[in-house]
Design a protein that fits this description.
There is one protein chain. This protein is mostly helical. The protein is built from 19 helices and no strands. The protein has one domain. Helix 8 runs antiparallel to helix 9 and helix 13 packs parallel to helix 16. The termini are close together.
């Protein structure tokens, strides 16, 4: 595309209307995301005291560790149910290429289905050799209980793996608000299932089976709605799988894999580091504090993530002026909003947790609260830039810096947790984030806008 044509598109009424439409769709996705997360938060406020009271500190810590372990497995999707698919599908949508869109969806779906089958076989082979009490560093919870909880969780997770791409498809078409409605329904029915299970007193395995069963049910219904009613042209047919689409997805996928592996270190390594050094009771205190004190980050992500597809579509149309203005606007809002939310939340955290859980032994220390506060503010500020960079497929630099962050989080976490307990883990997260992300994001964003003439030419 020539520079003259790009400038004509940029200042045309059609371009301006598309920019407004992007904001409308992102805003609608953000609002419904707030509703979905709001219901999830409310459900969490109801479910966590029920679950802690029902399971006890040790089993609740095991529950958090199982969820974290499954997130380790989630990285194997290679971005096929996440950012890689969003990027490629957004680009196809921006070019109105429906044939390519179906090929991308079909290729991603059947690749994920193949991975699910492999995971199931490997899990079945390894199951007899796993010492579950050693994995969770506990003798208070029986090995049989831990084993069946892990089996139910793993089977449900593997069955949901192919349909995990549904939210990415909604995001690609800037219809994240539809996925959010399904998430709202899932949260409501999960809470109902939790209340029923706590009354039955069936233990950890029954809790895992019921909650993951509800997730699986809504995942299948959501996929059916998407492919049969909302976008039947995207129906994942085996005949639509192409090597070209697979190569295109993998070209981004391996970069996202690095980022996702880094995500394990940054976000999912903590329960297992704490389990091995402090014990499951430490996981419970850390997890409850994290759930409360990172709420502002959830809010920022709710409003920022819907813009990923919008950035991809804007890039495809050469609308760099909109990208620049929207990044400035969202970063300012994230910075001011995070401080306004985090400071009062830190001051009230002890009181909130004590009256929420009604167990003094799970109230976090001042140090844990302070370092979580620092971590959350910095994470909020860098989130809009991260979303923009992923949206325009500047993935390589993101992956490298994420890997550095992950390594520092794990190394600092192991060292500082030994000296300062779970406070050391929050300290490690904040320190790694401060040392890496602000400078990395600023450098990458500056380079993007420096390269605008080249980007327009491409």
């Amino acid at each position: 595309m020539s520079i003259v044509n790009s400038v004509r598109i940029l200042f045309s009424k059609d371009s301006q209307s598309r920019g407004v439409e992007r904001l409308k769709r992102a805003g609608l996705a953000g609002i419904t995301s707030v509703m979905a997360q709001g219901i999830t938060i409310v459900a969490g406020f109801i479910s966590v005291p029920l679950t802690v009271g029902y399971l006890g500190e040790k089993r609740f810590g095991a529950w958090l560790a199982i969820n974290s372990l499954l997130m380790w497995l989630y990285v194997s999707n290679l971005g096929l149910s996440g950012n890689a698919l969003i990027n490629k599908l957004s680009d196809a949508n921006g070019k109105d290429d429906k044939k390519l869109a179906q090929e991308l969806v079909s290729t991603a779906f059947w690749t994920l289905g193949g991975l699910s089958f492999i995971f199931l076989i490997l899990f079945a082979i390894s199951l007899p050799f796993v010492n579950w009490q050693w994995v969770f560093n506990t003798i208070e919870v029986s090995a049989n209980e831990l084993k069946w909880a892990a089996i139910f969780a793993f089977i449900s997770f593997v069955m949901m793996f192919p349909t995990s791409m549904v939210d990415a498809i909604y995001s690609s078409y800037q219809e994240g608000y539809i996925g959010n409605v399904w998430n709202i329904l899932g949260s409501i029915f999960s809470l109902i299932a939790l209340v029923v299970v706590t009354q039955m007193e069936g233990g950890l395995p029954l809790l895992v089976a019921s909650l993951f069963g509800v997730r699986l049910l809504f995942s299948l219904i959501n996929a059916g709605y998407l492919f049969l009613i909302r976008h039947p042209s995207l129906k994942p047919l085996p005949s639509a799988v192409t090597k070209k689409s697979f190569d295109g997805l993998m070209d981004l996928g391996w970069k996202y894999l690095v980022g996702q592996l880094s995500g394990i270190g940054m976000f999912q390594s903590q329960p297992f580091i704490i389990t091995r050094i402090v014990g499951l009771e430490g996981v419970t205190i850390f997890g409850i504090a994290q759930r409360i004190l990172t709420l502002p980050l959830m809010v920022v992500q709710m409003f920022s993530n819907p813009f990923m597809a919008a950035y991809g579509e804007a890039k495809a149309r050469g609308d760099w002026d909109w990208i620049r203005k929207n990044l400035r606007r969202t970063t300012l809002i994230a910075a001011v909003g995070s401080i306004a939310m985090v400071v009062p939340l830190c001051l009230l955290a002890k009181w909130l947790i004590l009256h929420w859980i009604r167990k003094p032994e799970v109230v976090p220390s001042d140090g844990l609260i302070a370092f979580f506060g620092i971590y959350t503010i910095v994470a909020c500020i860098v989130t809009p830039a991260s979303v923009m960079l992923y949206g325009i497929e500047r993935v390589g630099g993101q992956s490298i810096f994420a890997l550095i962050n992950a390594l520092l989080t794990v190394v600092f976490g192991v060292i500082l947790t030994q000296y300062y307990g779970i406070t050391g883990m929050a300290m490690a997260m904040a320190l790694a984030l401060l040392l890496v992300n602000p400078i990395a994001q600023f450098t990458q964003v500056r380079q993007v806008f420096k390269d605008i003439p080249k980007n327009i030419k491409e």
